[in-house]
Amino acid sequence: MRIFTNLQKVVLSIKKPHILLFILIFTLGFFACFLFIFKHIERNGTEKINHNRVQEVPWGVKKINAASIWTSREKQKVKVAILDSGIDKEHKDLKGKVKGEFNPINMTLTSDDDVGHGTAIAGIIAAKDNSFGLVGIAPDTEIYSVKVLNSKGKGSLDNLVKAIEWCIDNNIQVINLSFGLSKDKPLLRGAIDKAVNSGIIIVAAAGNNYGGDVDYPAAYEKVLSINAVDRNNKIANFSPKGKIDFSAPGVDIPILSLNNGYKTESGTSLAAAHVTGVISLILQNRDKFGINSKEDIYNQVNHVLFKLSIDLGKKGRDEIYGKGFLSFK
């Protein structure tokens, strides 16, 4: 997904990754690209599972080794806000997970998901550990649904800023932003800086830009920019290059879909959700990971993430894998 700009309006739109429409749109003279690329293609190559009877542990959850932390949870509450298309709160794998909501698009309405993207992100982060469906990276996470995309997958920069300010006012600890803008916007930069300075960790998708530049806000200094890899730690072909902090599972990811559904999709948005889940587990277990205060929380968490990272690609940090793949070793 990427943002279209038109005077004061910013439009967020969900599109399929392989489309050569990028080139056509630029040729026709549109000023902004797709904010966020999300692969709405179900993969038939993955094992078919009856999720009504069996719980699947997605390959990303296994590869990150998240379950090794579940048994040692200190049970500290962690509040994660998903700024997206809303969340299907009635999905059987998410019932009871959403602890609060905010809809800056229409303050009189709830944050129900009409698109499905926010539901997918919520499931990767915190789907319940039960006997069916999928399980998320950090099932004990408290989820807050903040709707910035309408039923057409569109929204405004003003509402995005309102959403970030709501997170500050409501003591959110982690913000997941699985979308981005092609250009730096002072209004967004100011809101992001304010959130970071208040002690919020912000995780953002690097963007599905096929080797192009990293989107904003992922490109900002203290926003964690996440790229996507497959099961074999190979970088996804849709991933960008540039300011990358870490890489995480983002190819052929089992996800929740609307109406108690399940499917498999790909995108850096999904990779970002995995890292948000990892950070939630770290904050749930502050003593274990040496997180000793709210002061300088970004650097403390970033240090822990660096220690958890497995170097990929060129030695040291690079513009593709960042500091490496995150896993609880």
* Oligomer description: single chain
Give the terminus-to-terminus CA distance: 32 Å
Number of helices: 9
Low-confidence stretches: 3-46
- What fraction, in percent, of the residue positions are helical? 25-40%
CATH class: Alpha Beta
Number of strands: 16
User: What is the CATH H-level superfamily?
Assistant: Peptidase S8/S53 domain
The best one-word shape is globular
What percentage of the residues does DSSP assign to strands (E)? 15-25%
Note the main sheet. 7 strands, parallel
Strand order of the largest sheet: 6-8-5-9-10-11-12
Q: Your description of this structure?
A:
Keywords: Calcium, Hydrolase, Membrane, Metal-binding, Protease, Secreted, Serine protease, Transmembrane, Transmembrane helix. The protein is an alpha/beta fold and 329 residues long. The chain is built from 9 helices and 16 strands. It has a single domain, classed as Rossmann fold (3-Layer(aba) Sandwich). Helices cover 26% and strands 21% of the residues. Strand 1 and strand 2 form a beta hairpin. Helix 4 (117-126) runs parallel beside helix 7 and helix 5 (157-169) packs parallel to helix 6 (186-197).
How do you describe this structure in short?
Helices cover 26% and strands 21% of the residues.
Supply the key terms.
single chain, 329 residues, alpha/beta, Rossmann fold, 3-stranded mixed beta sheet, 9 helices, globular, disordered N terminus
Write the layout of secondary structure elements.
Layout: E1 2-6, E2 9-15, H1 21-27, E3 36-37, E4 55-56, H2 59-64, H3 67-70, E5 79-84, E6 98-102, H4 117-126, E7 133-134, E8 142-147, H5 157-169, E9 174-177, H6 186-197, E10 201-205, E11 224-229, E12 246-249, E13 253-257, E14 261-265, H7 268-284, H8 286-289, H9 297-308, E15 309-310, E16 325-326
Active site: 84, 117, 269
EC number: 3.4.21.-
Protein name: Minor extracellular protease Epr
